[in-house]
Each structure stands twice: as structure tokens, then as C-alpha cells.
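Work package 3, deliverable 3.1, input record:
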Amino acid sequence: MSKPADLMQGTLDLLLLKILALEPQHGWAIGQRLKQVSDDDLQVSDGSLYPALHKLELAGWIKAEWKNSELGRRAKYYELTHAGRRRLEHETAHWRRVSAAITRVLQLKEA
Amino acid sequence: MDWRRFVDVLSARTRAFFRRQTADAEAHDEIAFHLAMQTHANIRSGMAPADAERAARRDLGNSTRINEELHEMTTLPLVETPWQDLRYAFRMLKKSPGFAAAAVLTLALGIGANTAIFSVLNAVILRPLAYPRPEQVMKITTTYPGVDEFWVSPPEYLEFRQWTRSFASVGAYNNGEANIAAPNRPLRVRLMAVSDNLLTTMGVNAELGRAWFQGNEATPNGAKVVVLSHELWQSAFALDPTLVGRSIEIDGVSRTVIGVMPRGFDVADQRVQIWQPMVIPPNPNRGSHNLFMIGRLTDGATLESARAEMDTLLATWRSRAFGVSTPATSQLHSPDEKHRLRIDPLQTRIVSNATTAVWVLQGAVVLVLLIACANLSTLLLSRAESRRKEFAVRSALGAGRRRLLGQAIVEGCLLSTMGAVAGIGIAFVGLRAMVAAYPDSLPLASSVSIDLTVLAFTAGAALLTGLVFGIVPLLHLSPDLSATALKDSAARGATRRHALRRGLVAAEVAFAVALVVGAGLLLRTVNNLSGVDAGFNRAHLVTFGISLPLVKYPAIPDRRTFYRRLTEHLSATPGIVKVALASGLPPYRVVDSNTVTIEGFEGRENGAWNTIDYYQIASADYVETMGIPVIEGRNFAPSDADGDAPVAMVNQTMARAIWPGQSPIGRRLRRCCNPTAQWVTVVGVLGDVKQGGVDRKTGTELYFSADRTTLPTLNVVIRTGLDSKALGGTIQRLVRDLDPSLPVIRLQDMDEVFATAIGRPRLIAQLLTIFGALALLLAGIGTYGVLSYMVSERRKEIGIRMALGATRPSVLRMVVSQGLQITGAGLAVGVLLTLAIGRLLTSLLFGVGASDPVTIAAVVALIGAVALVACYFPGYMATRVDPMIALREE
């Protein structure tokens, strides 16, 4: 069984920002969304999800609010801040540049 | 990260830090919610409820760990970690109170000395004078060859004031003293006669009333007014607010108080108590140089531009002042190439030669602090050795190197902060004692204080000290700390550590040499100054001054009567041997430079001129009372007081300068520039007196008879077996009986006055002796400590040596010679250091060179002896090593 690829450093932040750009969500839902979208190719352990979210919160990219959830319990909902939105644009552009570059390198033909 | 983001993040973190308890609870809730959701989802996908929850927990991982991780994020590492380190450091110090006490005491002395001296440096050199725009305030004097600071004459002042464009205003002043009638008793006060605009030139307004003169107040027959200092207003008039507008009697003249200056105000650090208008007569004398000028530069002008303008002015001064055709008069009578103006910042002139002294002291205390640091570094190094295991354990438990380094720095800073706090106390007490003992030995001494600048300096010094000796002991800790140290004795690669320790001790010794040599040179200077023959017998002389107001004693016979009666009454007092009168008293006399006409003498090019350094108006008993030898001819006789044949005496220096190789007896001279003045015949030659102080060269002295020319102000010189304290009451009473309005001025013992006159070298010598002793003590302790540590580390080796037959003397020799090697290196470096920096001391020394071989040799011997003692004890300990015990250890 091949292990799912480890996330490159910093990539998790990008993914979290992107998911939160779609709509505000609580932690569990964010984790579910990640698994669905990536077809389980990108595995983010629930254990590393929360520290990552808190880090983004402390950095001011996202902010949180306690709201009633579908279970009727209060849950911590995260949403993107203005700074976070700009951050996401910047990171997305950066990712595109890097992945394009890597792709170009990988397309080189052996002589 | 731009700064706004930085602030955002920092504030987010700080907020998180302060709401940590809530944050922890929230994080807990968040994780709990996650588990609930996952369990719910698991159940929906068909799991049994118990399995569903377990699976959820498994997926999440260690929830405590996560909570902890989230908690860590809300902490401020820069605050939290040092706080932990600090508590840990406190606990470590409490465990070794002896070490802590020694370290704090050493630092308190080192930092305290630095704080104290820096307070002086701050007050004297760094802090600008307390005037608005103090950098614009310049002192303007004149110079001529051989004299750096000479006065300005009134016409020169008026011309400069009118012609200069660099100065917004130029004021003038001269100093004097006056009797004032305070409510309860007569006082002698320091007076400054000032031009109409001097106080406003300083830019300071009166605290009460006004500080400028108006109307006819500065004219010869105008209204008589005076401005008081706050200090005099306080001490003599009890801060009476109604004083302004009232009159007080000054030298018998009633003057209206028009203002009181604010507390601490002074013009040129002369502690002036009253200011009164300087009256310049309509046709002032160009030859009478008696003023100093103070100018305030215009906003655009600089010192350089003012000096450049001055050069231009000097080039055309004569033609502007006299018209082109006027022939040159005496060279002193107008600015020209020889008699020049000189412009300097006022602060520079006030501080003048004290700068070197203060910097030397500051350098000395920095050396003391360096020695203290080196000493503590060796102590901490030894502690670091014994704490290697502790460090290794902490390292193995996950403390990063950074954390260990941080811990060391925090420990260092804790010690240095405690030292600094104690040091500020020491500095405070020390400064008070110093200013009390030497109020006049340093300029601006009254403004020396521990202010914010000083505290900032102390904090900086403490921090730097803490960093230095916190880090130095770690320098030798190897990167693979944990691996080697846990195995302990296997890793005794001691060479590097020992080299560091030896180097530190050698450095201590070297600095101590420099300090002790400095102290030695200053002690010799004081000794030389005290040993200078002042030209008279200064033991058992009591002196005081009397100043008769001219309005009350206008004519010579009035004054003569007063002084004759005072002298008679004093002579009749038991315990008084002889009483005399004189116009000037050594050692504080300022050169008079009075011009005399000498029969058959026109002055020599580049040689003696007919200006005499010191006039002395003395009574016939003066020579005998003072104990001045009569070299040739005779002393004044009572019969000289009257009659048509006035006589004079000269000192040897004047005899040699004016009549080299000839006898002055019978020569005639008279006061300058007055063809009708009576000729005076020289009847005697006296020994030289150090009128200007023991460190000045002897000047030319010319004595006139006080019995003939009785000046209003004279000094009374008393030869007595008693001192001024014992005689004080009697003298006060006798003067009061004659005239109750007269204050007794400066009742003093001559030898005490001479001691005070060399106060500055004495002060520097005492301070350097204290610092040198401290340095010596620390260096001795350092040597002892390092050697003892080396002995204890080498017990095994020494044991083996002794087991193999080494004798106790040979072991002793081995240890002592090792110690002396370190000291020897330190001594050698110290001597080189002393030779290199000794020149800085030259201007502070008298009669001894900065690289005086005798002093250096004595210091080397002294420090060598101290080192020998410091080495002997560890050596003795080494001989007590029992081979059997040493070999079985470990």
C-alpha cells in the first residue's frame, strides 16, 4: 500500500485558506472537505488540523466565531479575513508558478 | 513581514496570552466537538456507538498532546521562557548562597564605581549647561604669548559687542566679593558685576522680578540695584517674597533688589550669590583688562564662523579703534597679533582641565568592571564545570542549545541586576561622601546626581556585564554536550577550558597593574605637591579677611586706625604669637599683571617685561609672621609707614628678572603711567612665595607697605599655636566690637587651605587607590580561585606523583610556579599596557613621569607578592593530598 504523499510544508495552509474561502466552516467539516475533494490522496491527520488552524488564526489570516452547529452544539467556525484573502491569492499564484516550473522540469526528455 | 502585520500578530499573541485560560477551555471544547461530530458520522456509517467513539479518538490522535500544542501556541515564548529561566536561576542561586553573595558583591562594587564616576562624567562633560540653546553660549577672553586666558578691557568689550555679527548678544562680567547686611548677621558673598545684557544673554529669566537693568541703573550715578541668587535668597532672607523692591546694604551702599534668579542658576560655575550692574565710565581705560565676555551666537552662526569673523576683526581692529594714523601703543592695549581674542564654548572653559581627570577615572572604573567580569567568569566557569551533568541532563531531556544559552544569560543578568541595584546604593553613598569631602575639586560638582541618563547607563552596564559573563563560561562547552558530559570523567579535555581560565586571570592581573600604577603615580603626585616648599612656614598659621566699605572708611587714616586696633587686640589674645596684614594670600592668587615703571629698565624683547605678577601690600610684621626669609637688604620697618621715602621689597624671581647679576637694593620704581607718582625705593629682597599654588611657577612679587597704603580689603595673618576653630569665637568678637557690620571672611588654617588647593589630585589619588585596591583584591581572588580549582581537578595526578616519590616541596613548587606563570604573563602585559596608556595621565601628574620606573617596579613587586600569597594556599592544599585517598576517588 503506497502511503499518501506527505504534504509539502506550507501547503496545508494554502488548502485550508482555499476551503475557507468557499464558506466559513468548523474544524471537523474542514477536515471532511479536504478528504472529499482530494479523494483521500491528501491525508491530513485530524491531529495536525487544529494546530494549523490556530496558527492561521494567530497570524490573522482567518478569524473564528462560536456559533450553533447542525448538532445543536456550539462549534468554532472559521472564516477568512481580508488579509487572509490576499494571502490566498498570493499563495495560489506562488503555487502555480512553482508547480508549473516543476512540471516543466519533469517533462524534460532523456537524450 | 511588514510592521503592521507584526503589530497585528503581536497583539493577537498578546491577547491570546492574557486570555489563555479561556483559550484553553475553548480549545478543549473545539476538540470535544470534533470528537462528537466524528462519532456521530461513524455511527451513521454503521458503527456501534462505543466503537464509533473509539475510532474517532484514534483518528484524532493524542488529544492531550493536541491541547498542549494549542496551549503552547498561545504562549509568548519571549516572555514565558525567560520567566521560567529566571525562577530556575533564583533557585540555583539560593542553592549556593556563598557564590551568589560573592558575585553580587563583586558586581555591586564594579557597577557602583561605574555608576558613581559616570554620574560625574555626565554632570561635568556630557550634560549641557542649564541654559536655553547652551551650545550657542561662548566665553570670549583674550590671550597673549604665555597666557592662555586673560581679561578684556572695557573699550575692547564695547567694540567687539558693536562690531561682531556672529553674536546675537555679548555681555561682560567680572568677579568680586561684597559684604552684605543680612537680617541677622553680616555676610560675605560672591559678587558678579555684569553688563546690562549679560543675564539675558544667558537666556534665563529671573524667578522673581527681573534680571536686566533699565534706565540709569548701569550708569555711574544711577539707581543702585542688585539681583540675588535663589540660594542666597533662601539662606539669608528665608525666601521672603517681599524682598524684591526692598533695599539691602551691600558694602555699605543701599541697593534695591530687582530680582531673584532661579535655583541653580550660575554664569560660569562660580556660585555667584549677587549680580549687580557693571558700571563702565564714559572714557574707559583701554589698558585696564578686567572683564570676561560671554556671547550668544546668532542662530546661523557656528563656533568656526565666529572664530573666522574674529580673525577678520583682529586684522583691522587697530585702524578701526584708533584711526589709521594713530601710532601703536602698548601691545596689551589693543587686540592684534599678540593680544588676541579667543572664543570657546562656555562649557569647555568651565570644565577645562577636569576633562582628563574625569575620563581617566571613568577608564579606571571600566577596568575594575572588566576585572570583576573576568573574575565572575572564572567562577561561573568552575560552576559550569560542576554543572556539566545538569546541562547534559537537560539537553538530553530536550532543552535546545539555545535554551541552555538563554538560561546562562538569564543567570548572568540576574546576578548583574542584583549587583546593579546594590551598586546604585553604593554609588549614591559614595557620591555624597565625595562631594562633601571635595566640594571644589571638580567643576559643576553641585550638579552631580544619579539621573535618568546615569540609570540608563547603569542598566546598560549591568545588561552587558550579565551577557558577557553569562556567555563566556559556555564558550568551552562542546557541541556534543550531552554525549560527552553524561559520561563525565571520560571527557576531561580540559586544555581549552584551562586556557580560557588562565587568560582571564592573566587579564585581571594586567588590568590591576595598570590601575595600581595609576594610583601609585597619583599618590606620588600628591606627595610631591605636599612637599613643595611654598616659600614660608605654612603650619600654625590662621588667616581671615576683612573688607572695609569705602563709604564708611573713605580715607587711609580711617582704615589704618581700624587695622591697627584689630591687630593690637589680636596680638593681646593669649595663644596668638604674631599678627600681620597682607593684600594677597597664597595659594589661590591670580596673577595681577600690574605694569610698573622701573628706573633704567625698558623691558626686554622676549624676556622680562615691566608687568609684575603679584603686588603684595603687607605690614611690617608680615615677613616674620609668615616666615619668609629676607635674602638681602632689610624688611619693612615701622618708620617706613610715614615720611617722604616710600620703600618696597621684591622677591628673588623679580630681582633676577629685572636686575640680573646686580643688587636691586636702592633701585627705584613707581606705579605705571603716572608721571606724578612717587618713586619707591627697593630696600630688600625676599624669598619666593608660591602665590598661585604649589604646582605653578613662581612669579615676580613686589611688596609695598600696608602701613602706608592701607587697602580697604586686607587679610589678617596670625601665627599661633591654636587653630581656626579655637580662635574663631575670639576673632568674631573682636571684629564685632570694632564694627558689627563687618563679616569675618574665610577664617581658615593655612595648611588646610594648601591641602584643599591640591584637592583634585588628592581626590583622583584616593579614588584610584580604592579602585586599584579593589582590582588587586579581585585579581588575587581570581588567581587563588583558578589555582585551587586546577589543584582539585588534578588531585589524582598529584596523588600519583606523590605515590611515585614527589616530595611535598616539589609539589608546592609545581603548583606555585604554575600560578606564577599566569601572573607573570599578566604582569608583563600589564606593564606594556601601562606604558602604552600612561601618557593619558601626564597632565594629572606633578614631579613624576607617566612611565616612572620606580613606581612600575614597586607595583610589579606588590602584585607579585599578592600573587605569591594567592598561589601559596592552593599549593599548600596540593601538598596535603593523600595519595591513597586521591587514587581511590571515583
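The mean pLDDT of chain B is 86.
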